[in-house]
Amino acid sequence: KQEVTQIPAALSVPEGENLVLNCSFTDSAIYNLQWFRQDPGKGLTSLLLIQSSQREQTSGRLNASLDKSSGRSTLYIAASQPGDSATYLCAVRPNDYKLSFGAGTTVTVRA
Amino acid sequence: GAVVSQHPSRVICKSGTSVKIECRSLDFQATTMFWYRQFPKQSLMLMATSNEGSKATYEQGVEKDKFLINHASLTLSTLTVTSAHPEDSSFYICSAVEVSVNQPQHFGDGTRLSIL
After folding, report:
1. What are phi and psi for residue A19, nearest 5 degrees?
2. Given A46, A49, A101, which is nearest B43 (Cβ)?
3. Is it true that the peptide bond before A14 is cis, omega within 30 degrees of 0?
4. Which of B29, B48, B85, B86 is most deeply packed, by most CB within 10 A?
5. Interface contact flag, B106 A102, Cβ < 8 Å
6. B51 interface with A at CB cutoff 8 Å
7. Chain A partners within 8 Å of B50 (Cβ)
8. Cβ separation of A103 and B41 shorter than 8 Å?
9. Strand-strand pairing, B111-115 and B10-13
């Protein structure tokens, strides 16, 4: 069974600092990995999706890397802003569509 | 972009009531929809997979008679929590997948269910 772990569970940084969020998974036989943002009491917003054949994906200030062989992904958020405060979830997908989620990293960016 | 609408966003009701939650794909046809449950500060747990025109597939430990799922069309799936009790209180989120291969799941905004 796939286990997804996110470290740290919570992170508080001053505005402008770069954020590094880690995700590890136990089964490297994945189809893709996806990073989501979840605001309190809300659903999920997809940030980046990395196919198993890719090493990284970038969108604006966000960059996600994937090392499938070691079962790791890292989400980098450059020059953090208070609006980046949210919970960030990573999810891995095997060949079917059943996603396995980590518990998330709750980020607070202090103004 | 693809949009999934989930309704209602919040429900508060008495114990013993049955509650229906709708999940609609607004601008694409979703052959498959998923229902997740999320406890506070915990990960999303997949409850069931809903395929249009066929019976839902439930994950281990999920009571199919408690959580009734119907996927009658390519744009609508419903989750009915039957005879809800306080332990059923949770955040329920649906997602939908486009027919084309290799498309990411699109998530609804979730439903906060509170059983008194």
Report:
1. -110, 140
2. A101
3. no
4. B48
5. no
6. no
7. none
8. yes
9. parallel
Is the pLDDT confidence value at B2 over 80? no
Q: Is the pLDDT of residue B102 over 70?
A: no
Would you state the pLDDT for residue B34? 94
Q: Which two tokens stand for residue A97?
A: 């569509």
Chain A residue closest to B51 (CA)? A97
The shortest C-alpha distance from B12 to chain A (Å) reads: 15
Strands annotated E in chain B:
4-7, 10-13, 19-25, 30-38, 44-51, 57-58, 67-73, 76-81, 90-98, 106-107, 111-115
Give the nearest chain B residue to A104 (CA atoms). Answer: B43
Consecutive 10-residue averages of pLDDT for chain A (111 residues):
93 96 95 93 91 95 96 97 97 87 96 94
Specify the amino acid at residue B64.
Answer: K
- Interface contact flag, A98 B34, Cβ < 8 Å: yes
